[in-house]
Amino acid sequence: MLNVKNNVFWVGKVDWELRRFHGDEYSTHRGSSYNSFLIKEEKTVLIDTVWKPFAGEFVQNLKNEIDLQEIDYIVVNHGEVDHSGALPELMAQIPDTPIICTQNAVQSLQGQFHQDWNFQTVKTGEKLDLGNGKELIFLEMRLLHWPDSMACYLTGDEILFSNDAFGQHYASEKLYNDQVDQCELMAEAIKYYANILAPFSPLVEKKIKEILALELPVDIIAPSHGIIWRDNPLQIVEKYRGWAASYMENQVVLLYDTMWEGTRIMAENIARGIGASNPEIEVKLLNTARTDKNDVLTEAFRSRAILLGSPTVNRSILMSLAAIIDGMEALRFKGKKAASFGCYGWSGEAVGKLNEMANRAGLELIDDGLRCRWRPDQKEIEDCIKFGEKIGKSLK
């Protein structure tokens, strides 16, 4: 149990070994944590639990610190099992303890655990008196990122328990943002936003405005994964505002897969042309078959333009790139330009297919695309450089 502030304690679990999350959908190169918090005022409140594999350890650690019968309320900000997984083991020992959550969370928790616990539902603005002049104020965070999500704010200590908003998958023995590597922290924060919260960007903007309109002083933002924000905590709120607003940096990323190196050669020479015609722009090449998909999607999120390259295979494109474009469509990236390229031997449909997929993903095509037959010769390499120059100039 680690002290967060005054009578608020961290009672979660750091998962150093975690490498995949949401099934196999999200890579966690730096592990993660499942942040659970204990508030000990006149009323004792537990906010969230941990993932099921650590349920026994979690409950035993709680018992080492307090008599479980002293817990007056359990707040479930979000029913996903990485936050609620220890509930069955905990509730087996304190079955009548009220669980405070949204109405949607009741559906989620009953659907997953098939238990009719003592649920008490709340809506935005409702409060729980903890004594000693402190209250928890509840804030619905619907679709950030599940329909059942909420946050809660502790008056007096001015702590926003934000659940999945403002978090990162980042394991550390340190609790706070001013204690860890800032580059690592922000890299994990933008990756988290790009891969999990980006589809809900319009709601993010709206919800941030709602929160700010409450004019609640915020001293600490305590998310359910990763590092707690205490040094200028609203910096991550400002980052979210920027990321939610059709975010892009001065960057182009070339996403490609290749069979016999022809499309790779095209990608490298297109990149040369972009860099030559627009030296201020950052150019990155990522082979989608050899690069972690969440890292690819993060770089796409950061980019002004996304170039897509694949050879023609079975009158279509290679599967690794198809999966990435499908991911971009689901994540609903906004305001990004695109162009396609690829080699072919016989029928040559890949570029047309890529253009169709780019349109469906909401990308704005800035060119009809470039095809090379077989392996590019010197003339076709020069064509690739010119194609890149054209793209680079269009982005000035």
Question: Can you give a write-up of this model?
Answer:
The strands form 5 sheets. The protein has a 7-stranded mixed beta sheet with strand order 1-2-7-8-9-10-11. Strands 17, 18, 19, 20, 21 and 22 form a 6-stranded parallel beta sheet that branches. A 5-stranded mixed beta sheet has the order 12-13-14-15-16, with no helix packed on it. It is α/β, with parallel strands linked by helices and 396 residues long. It contains 12 helices and 22 strands. The mean pLDDT is 96. The N and C termini lie far apart (53 Å). The chain folds into 2 domains: 2-244, Ribonuclease Z/Hydroxyacylglutathione hydrolase-like (Metallo-beta-lactamase, Chain A), CATH 3.60.15; 252-391, Flavodoxin domain (Rossmann fold). Helix content is 35%, strand content 23%. Helix 11 (350-360) links the parallel strand 20 and strand 21 (364-365). The longest helix has 17 residues, at 378-394. It is elongated.
How many domain units? 2
Silhouette: elongated
CATH class of the largest domain: Alpha Beta
Largest sheet: 7 strands, mixed
* Major sheet: arrangement of strands: 1-2-7-8-9-10-11
Instruction: Report the helical percentage.
Output: 25-40%
What would CATH call the homologous superfamily of the largest domain?
Ribonuclease Z/Hydroxyacylglutathione hydrolase-like
Q: What CATH architecture of the largest domain would you give?
A: 4-Layer Sandwich
Strand content: 15-25%
